Amino acid sequence: MSQAPQPPGAPVVRREGREKVTGTARYAAEHAPPGCLYGWIVPATVPGGVVTATRTADALAVPGVHTVLTPDNAPRLEDPDDPILSVLQDDRVPHRGWPVALVLAESLEAARAGAAAVRVEYRTTGHDVVLTGDHPGLYTPEQANGGHPAVRERGDAEAAFASAPVRIDATYTLGGLHNHPMEPHASTARWADGHLTVHDSSQGSTTVRDSLARALGIDKDHITVISEHVGGGFGSKGTPRPQVVLASMAARHTGRPVQLSLPRRYMAAVVGHRAPTVQRVRLGADREGVLASVSHEIVTHTSTVAEFVEQAAVPARVMYASPHSRTAHRVTALDVPTPSWMRAPGEASGMYALESAMDELACALGIDPVELRLRNEPAAEPDSGRPFSSRNLAACLNDGARRFGWHERDPGPAARQEGPWLLGTGVASATYPVLVSKSAASAHAAPDGSYRIGVNATDIGTGARTVLAQIAASVLGTPPENVRIDIGNSDLPAGSVAGGSSGTASWGSAVHKAATGLAGRLAGRTGPLPPEGVTVTADTARETGEESPYARHAFGAHFVEVAVDSLTGEVRVRRMLGVFAAGHILNSRTARSQFIGGMVMGLGMALTEGSTMDPVFGDFTENDLASYHVPSCADVPDIQAHWIDEDDPHLNPMGSKGIGEIGIVGTAAAIGNAVRHATGARLRTLPLTPDKLL
Ligand code: MOS
């Protein structure tokens, strides 16, 4: 590592990389305090109803079992801010897998054996778990996820569509998807002298602390939540999950430390999922491909526990110029686990449909799909009329087309063959909003010339420590190695959640402000620092409280080549190339990992991943990694991520946009469009498994 100040964007290596690859980085379940009890949840085995009796005698007779918590003896919770955290409080079973008891034992094995011995009786009330496009329970919610209005209308989309010379009217159907981070959700909780300390696998321990304070009815100063290393989350750890409440209440009840780790097979029921969607897209255009009407209507499900509405129509408010538009969401509450955030909620599913429909329009018109998108570039954000702070979608499309060799393509379907393989290429656009949340940070200068930054950021695998060190070092004019970064502890200055691709912008803005304040204080000084050093703290309440007059989004373009086996229907992706415009890239090494990580997850969405709802059983059937197929190395082809450096002064002091999610946006559409090009077959559902292609 160089000992000189680093230029912005330098590929500084990940600080905790060695700890991670040598196994010395410790995760939430690797902190087992002396005297620790282990928990195992008893999940409801019916998909809806009430518990009529819970018989615990057999479980308590299992050697090593200490306690069985049920709604009869579990501590009362005060005021959980999320109804999914209201566990062991009553006898209702809102969906299969809902926790109905918690067994605590001296070992994990004893807890598991105890859980198997708990006898639960239910009165079932019937269940409704299958989303259909015309489900009778559908209603228009007030808002979709992210606070977006459920419905937006401009002009008269219906009439403009009806009178358009070229029309696409297509319905795309997506099943549920699950995040499945490498590290399952886990919490280790202990109480000492009235203070609760929890190691939790979360994307934001300030949020977990505040939520526990409300649920347990104690002051947040009496809680410390530590999320030092986190093995992925993709949104499923963005809000506190039941295991952290259960572990904390069990530790309080027993007076012993408690560890509760969710088995992989149990995650689908309690950590959220990308909700299924039925999406109708109608595009009306003239014969040159200029859009007159864009309509994107979403049907999705939520649970009876809480309302979560996948905001899949929102990207259509951003993408293409059109005088007439309607974007709308409807939802129905089914007897299913509560959906939640999964990498680019809204954009990932919505852009699959919109970008597939744009390809259908290009095919109908005989216009190149890159060219069709360029013809519909808006001068301002279509929905709001606000100017873009920067929008380089056209540059991404053009640069990507050049790098990929797009224009060598014969546009006709099934034009290229190689033995049994049909070859095709596809393109799709990507977008993701620029989000930023309030954070605080401290910056400390020590007398020995080193610096220390404190901010409750979370590193979910992104390299947050590294980029925050770069930000601080660039302000302080010192090499990044000279800056120590403390993150992952709720006693540090409050940080926002590692979600919404907003982490670096949110924590980085606070770090930048604190470091700037510190640099100012140091500049005014002469002589050595006092022995305690100098510390400056700052927060971004003011900056994040102001609404930007600009529409701020990252953009991108995906180019994909596929081969489809005409005998078996197998789809192989041969090449993926993404070009992104996301402001300044702050660390080219870790940024590339984020982009290609998102692209690989998009490949999974296109080809291998899918959660099937069993209508009789009433739950998702793929609940382990043997049945829920994430791409393995052999599935991942030649993959390239490039970017266009944007100089956008309307973002934050670093000039950065988020990069964690845009890689998954549009990817599945590009693959589907390539499959259409290869075969002539237009599928409007995912994943593109052989049964659908034959
Ligand atoms: Mo991401 S789904 O915002 O953690």
Automatic annotation (TrEMBL):
Xref: InterPro entries: Ald_Oxase/Xan_DH_a/b (IPR000674), Ald_Oxase/Xan_DH_a/b_sf (IPR036856), Ald_Oxase/xanthine_DH-like (IPR016208), AldOxase/xan_DH_MoCoBD1 (IPR008274), AldOxase/xan_DH_MoCoBD2 (IPR046867), AldOxase/xan_DH_Mopterin-bd_sf (IPR037165)
Q: Which UniProt keywords apply?
A: Molybdenum, Oxidoreductase
Q: Does the keyword Oxidoreductase apply?
A: yes
User: Which terms in the Gene Ontology molecular function aspect does this entry carry?
Assistant: xanthine dehydrogenase activity
Aldehyde oxidase/xanthine dehydrogenase a/b hammerhead domain: from which residue to which, for each copy? 22-126
Q: At the top level of its lineage, which domain of life is listed? A: Bacteria
Protein name from the UniProt record: Xanthine dehydrogenase YagR molybdenum-binding subunit
Species classification: Bacteria, Bacillati, Actinomycetota, Actinomycetes, Kitasatosporales
